[in-house]
Write a structure and sequence with these properties.
The protein is mainly α and 279 residues long. 73% of the residues lie in helices and 0% in strands. It has 8 helices and no strands. It has helices at residues 3-30, 37-50, 72-79, 99-117, 122-143, 150-166, 172-180, 188-273. Helix 1 (3-30) packs antiparallel against helix 4 (99-117). The protein starts with a helix and ends in a 6-residue tail after the last helix. Residues 171-184 and 208-218 have low confidence and may be disordered.
């Protein structure tokens, strides 16, 4: 295997050991009881007696004096222990917020580490880089904001991309897609932040729409009331003008009749004076 691919496989193995120690220590310190390394070693000795088949070919524990001496094989053996043959199971993964995602992450890290540890040619080194990239994604799903901070996950993402680039795992098609869309892959914190922001915007929009809808209905009701009021005012105005015309028409007719009476009397007087009447 080329020196570069061999170096990449070694770095992936070392990084997976680091991640495994971090996961085991985080889970161990979250459980009730003793959180020391000595307590962990005593637990391992007890589990070796209870489940010798599961803990077969385990590294010698006598010389372990620090967390840095633990590797992925030992850490994942503890974390993924089914504990079916013990009266007091720890259930380390079951005590997390997302047990299924945590189990997938542990399995993914163990798989990537084993692939890197046994890589003997370039294709196996490429496969180790791909598995490590997938393992980081699983870590994001299971441990973002818990065992790992957002900045730490971003660092592992950068390492995964560096491994893929150095071993030539990126195909021309993927490179072309990246050139067309230069947006970097987001981490757990960014996606969670966007989702939270989207939810807040949606809630704000819904809250804004409800008053607007209510205002719209209120405005429609107000417009209908206003239209009804205007129609009522118009009807009252027409009635008032008609009444005024009637009131004006009454005196006019009386004046006309009076004038006609006066004119008739004047004609009768003139006829009388001319001797035209009673002949």
């Amino acid at each position: 295997m080329p020196d570069e691919a061999l170096q990449i496989a070694f770095e992936i193995k070392t990084t997976c050991d680091e991640i495994s120690r971090r996961l085991l220590r985080w889970h161990w310190e979250k459980k009730p009881g003793d959180h020391s390394l000595e307590g962990l070693l005593r637990h391992l000795e007890q589990r070796q007696k209870e489940s010798p088949e599961y803990y077969d070919r385990l590294p010698d524990l006598s010389g372990k004096t620090s967390w840095q001496q633990l590797d992925t094989t030992l850490c994942m053996r503890v974390l993924l222990d089914p504990e079916k043959d013990t009266d007091r199971p720890l259930d380390l993964l079951g005590n997390t917020a997302h047990p299924a995602a945590a189990r997938r992450a542990c399995n993914a890290v163990r798989t990537a580490r084993n692939q890197a540890a046994h890589a003997s040619d370039r294709s196996e080194g490429v496969q180790a880089a791909i598995l490590f990239d997938e393992a980081v994604e699983c870590l994001e799903e299971g441990y973002a904001g818990a065992a790992f901070k957002t900045a730490e996950l971003e660092q592992y993402y950068r390492m995964a991309q560096d491994f893929l680039t150095r071993c030539g795992a990126k195909t021309p098609r993927r490179s072309a897609e990246k050139a067309e869309d230069p947006t970097p892959r987001s981490t757990a914190g960014e996606r969670t932040s966007r989702q939270s922001s989207s939810s807040r915007r949606a809630n704000q929009s819904n809250r804004a729409d409800r008053p607007a809808h209510s205002q719209s209905r209120s405005g429609q009701g107000t417009r209908r009331q206003s239209q009804s009021g205007r129609k009522g005012q118009q009807n009252r105005s027409r009635n008032s003008r008609a009444a005024q015309r009637k009131r004006k028409a009454g005196p006019n007719r009386a004046m006309v009749l009076l004038l006609l009476g006066i004119a008739l009397l004047g004609l009768l007087a003139r006829a009388w004076s001319m001797g035209l009447l009673f002949h």
